[in-house]
Design goal:
Strand content: 15-25%
CATH superfamily: NAD(P)-binding Rossmann-like Domain
Helix content: 25-40%
CATH architecture: 3-Layer(aba) Sandwich
Radius of gyration: 16 Å
Strand order of the largest sheet: 3-2-1-4-5-6-9
Shape: globular
Number of domains: 1
Number of helices: 6
Distance between the termini: 28 Å
Oligomer: single chain
Number of strands: 9
CATH topology: Rossmann fold
CATH class: Alpha Beta
Length: 210
């Protein structure tokens, strides 16, 4: 299969890429990114792109499946507007181009609590993205909703780090929906969804990835 992966420089995307390159089901991986990837493999092509000006006629939009792991935080983005651009506008643009070019399967990292009617900005943006992706009518759409994502990040998110420490200690006694979701487990779910044979829209909650 030909896989399109967007967000390979991030924590979850990096895990997806590593698994995809090792998976015998995957013949090739196209991973457009904002900067060169520190990975080299005969199966991998990684053009440098601008997500606010994506090449609309690139042949790599036509894939057997697409996975999107783009995401940031409001603090890192610097404003609500910049956050919405990365977590809503860019994934939606990727999905639209993939759909126009005939890609039938799409899997995306959303978030626990995603709801377009939420009073919370973060959850509302994620919910709006989910609704707009559903409207594109992919034959197969998987919305993955992790809670706090565990793994080794290149940057330190102080608020997340403090919460992570608490959840690590309380993990055994917490309900599964509130436990840390390892990036490796999220990547496994995304890849299985993209390369599987399920149809329709599927939501994978945090409890399934604890």
């Amino acid at each position: 299969m030909k896989l399109l992966l967007v967000g390979a420089t991030g924590l979850v995307g990096h895990e997806v890429l590593a698994r995809a390159l090792e998976d015998p089901r995957v013949e090739s991986v196209m991973a457009p990114a904002r900067r060169p990837l520190a990975v080299s493999d005969p199966k991998l092509s990684a053009p440098v792109v601008r997500f606010d000006d994506l090449p609309k006629d690139a042949d790599w939009w036509q894939a057997d499946a697409a996975i999107c792991t783009l995401g940031t935080t409001i603090a890192k983005a610097g404003s609500r507007e910049a956050f919405r651009e990365v977590d809503h506008d860019y994934p939606l643009a990727v999905a639209r181009l993939a759909r126009v070019h005939g890609t039938p399967r799409f899997a995306v990292v959303s978030a626990k609590g995603a709801n377009r009617n939420s009073p919370f900005f973060y959850s509302r943006v994620k919910g709006e993205l989910e609704a707009e992706l559903a409207a594109l009518a992919f034959p197969s759409l998987t919305l993955v909703r992790p809670g706090l994502i565990g793994g080794d990040r290149t940057e330190r998110r102080r608020g997340e780090h403090a919460t992570m420490l608490v959840l690590q200690r309380l993990g055994p006694v917490l309900p599964k929906a509130w436990r840390i979701n390892p990036a490796a487990r999220i990547a496994e779910v995304l890849l299985d969804a993209a390369l599987g044979d399920s149809t329709g829209t599927r939501i994978v909650g945090s409890a399934e990835m604890a």
